[in-house]
Amino acid sequence: MHPFEDRIDRLLSMPPYGQPPEERQAGLLEILKEELDYACQRHAGYKNYVRHWPKDYRSAAQVADLPFLPVGILKANPPLSFVSPGEIKRTLTSSATTSQVPSRVVLDAPTARRMTKGIVAIVRDFIGPARRPYLVVDTPGFLGGGNELGARGAAIQGLQPFANETTHCLSLSEQGGLMLDRDRLREFARDRQDTELLVYGFTFILWKHLVEPLLAEGICLNLREARILHSGGWKRLQDQAVDKTVFNEQLAHVFGCSPERIIDFYGMVESVGVIYPDCSAGNKHGPVFGDVIVRNPLTLEPVAAGEHGIVQVCSVLPTSFPGHLLLTEDMAQVIAYDGCPCGRRGISFRFAGRIPKAELRGCGNLESKRSPMD
Amino acid sequence: MTELTHTVHSPAEISTAATKLRQAVLDAEISPNEVMTVFDSWAKSLDVREFDDLPGIVFLRMWLRRGTLEPIIARELGSNGLHGGWTEYGRAKCKAFPLGVVGHWPAGNVEIQPILSMTCALLGGNAALVRIPSGLVDLTRVLMEKLVQSDPGERLTRRIFMAAFEHGRRDLQEAMAQVVDGAMIWGGEEAVLQIRALPFPHWARVAVFGPRISVAAMDAGAWGNPDEQKSWCVRMARDVWQFDQQACSSPQVLYLEKGAGRSTAQFLSNLQRAFETENQAHPRRTIPAALTSKICQARASWLLNDAAHQAVFPMGPDWTLLFGSGSDLPPPIQGKTLTVLEVDNLLDPVSKFDGNVQTLGLGMADPEKERKLAWLAGKRGVDRIVKLGRMHVFVPPWDGVDLIRPMVRMVRHVCSTD
């Protein structure tokens, strides 16, 4: 047992958004430094990276000075690991929609345990602690077996602690495509007009396989107490010209609930145990066991409030792989460094999509090798 | 004042412009000497303090000077080519005539390339129809305004039409291709393949300057010489800084040949200092987030993948030096990220080149070794072998091709009365 484990557990037991930013920074900085020490002992390459970082992490005065890794580094195969193969309990894989190559992160038992606790702490802050009927807008077989779990599966499973019963309302067609199982949905919705419910689906899947078919048939489920969580990003819906307002209105319409009961959250398998739900002011927040830094692409320094930059996620939860300080491939705008109207302390920010792809049109941009010359 | 840059919306605008340009070529012949007179005056008008920070301006001023261009014309068009005359070759005489309207598709990453490409066609007596990449419209307009002032008689400017339109406007790209007699195409693989596939007339001459990368190499006698080490490092840094290391002539890797008992530590320290100095003098004003991400990825991969690897970089993405050993050509990162690799023998990496390497920048103390390297590099597809610090000097042949001659017709006359 490492000394920092106790302190991580203490953070996990605190209200996730109650600590003043300075206090949180100081606590995180101390633990992250110890985690860096630990990681350097476990991985020669990682130690080499940290050793070459322009600022010595041991004397760093803020989390922003600590050596972060670009998230793409987690696409390595075999995955980067700080634990022996025998200690690995599970491997999470990202959806890899952009690059085709998925990230793979390994979880040992303590990291897996913290992952569950982290998600529970965050979600509880948004929907309360009660267990309730859980409707998964996906197929029952999606979680699969074995030790590998994808992003969709991880999200579905992460909400399981809030369920007292679980229903999956999609099934696979003969061609292998997703289709709405109307009987199961009807069964789930029966007599639950006033029951507190939890619904989760990937954003695009919710739209394509539940909202669109029900809208087309003019069906309203009359589940006014449903809490609907979704994640997975907006790119595929933007391609269909469906923005967040339209999405929320139509989704609320088919469930018969208020749009305020819909929560979009951002999560990435690489940042295990931390998700970023929208608050009532439409912003996202970092929990007490993590933080978010938005960096100016020109300087990599944190941006001022109101400015856009590249998102770095910080979390003290993972200790089995280098996931504690990750520069993502997403952009965000910092709304404020404290004082969100929702009452949550610390940074509030909004995602602004993926980093735009660089255009490869220059005379120095080689995309393919030539045939060998001999 | 004549406006040379136009935002184009329809194919008809391009067709009309081409008709006028062709007429201008037919109306009056212009010799390279006359073109150079205007260029010389243009170069002087660009030599003002307010332009000092414009990207590529130092090079453009130098390129437009008579002293730079005269020897190029003499070599490419013959000894009498300067005044548009006939040059004797035995019993025959040859003279360069323009193709007509030359279309230019410059790359978006080299700021002054629309202008450089255009000047090549004008020196051959042609008219120039130039597509300006979206990001270069403002800079090109500023520079071209000075040309207009330097050419009150419009001898040159009536031969120029610069068209600004989105890369994705296939209809405008096709309209441009259909009206030209020659084309100069620059850029990355995707862009070059798209442009080359446009419906050019069957007679159109097409010169393609496709994507390449460049490499630097030094022998131990050069990098190990304490008197010259700093100056080599400054040259290296300058070659990396130009065009944000995104040009085909930008060095992506520096090979250092090991020397018995010599450590590269002092050289690398001087190289770091040269990068810091160059960065202070020419800091980046902006950067695409994708490039920042790529630079961070390169730093991390390099150090994580091999604990023996070393690197130096500041907190920001300003520049990066990656140190290691091995003769394989690492993938180009760009954004002022130079991989420095120690090798036993410089012939080893050069023998692995696959034709994608355009320029080999050399810092050598051993002339015999340099001769061997130059021969091997030429054999392995390298088109330019130059001294470090001069990797971007735009002198033909470029990519193994002349710059003016491909856009002229060399007419041969064997006199019947002799």
What is the overall shape of chain A? globular
Quaternary arrangement of the chains shown?
A: heterodimer
CATH architecture call of the domain at 116-265 in chain A = 3-Layer(aba) Sandwich
Structural class of chain B: alpha/beta
The arrangement of helices and strands of chain B along the chain is EHHHHEEEHEHEHEHEEHHEHHEEEHEHEE
Average pLDDT of chain A works out at: 91
Q: What count of helical segments of chain A does DSSP give?
A: 9
The secondary-structure class of chain A comes to alpha/beta
Percentage of residues in strands of chain A: 15-25%
Q: CATH H level of the largest domain in chain B: which superfamily? A: Aldehyde Dehydrogenase, Chain A, domain 1
Strand content of chain B: 15-25%
What low-confidence regions of chain A span 5 or more consecutive residues with pLDDT below 50? none
- One letter per element, helices H and strands E, the order of chain A comes to HHHEEEHEEHEEEHEHEHHEEEEEEE
CATH topology category name of the domain at 116-265 in chain A: Rossmann fold
Computed Rg of chain A = 21 Å
- Would you identify the CATH architecture of the largest domain in chain B? 3-Layer(aba) Sandwich
First-last Cα distance of chain B: 51 Å
The helical percent of chain A reads 25-40%
CATH class of the domain at 116-265 in chain A: Alpha Beta
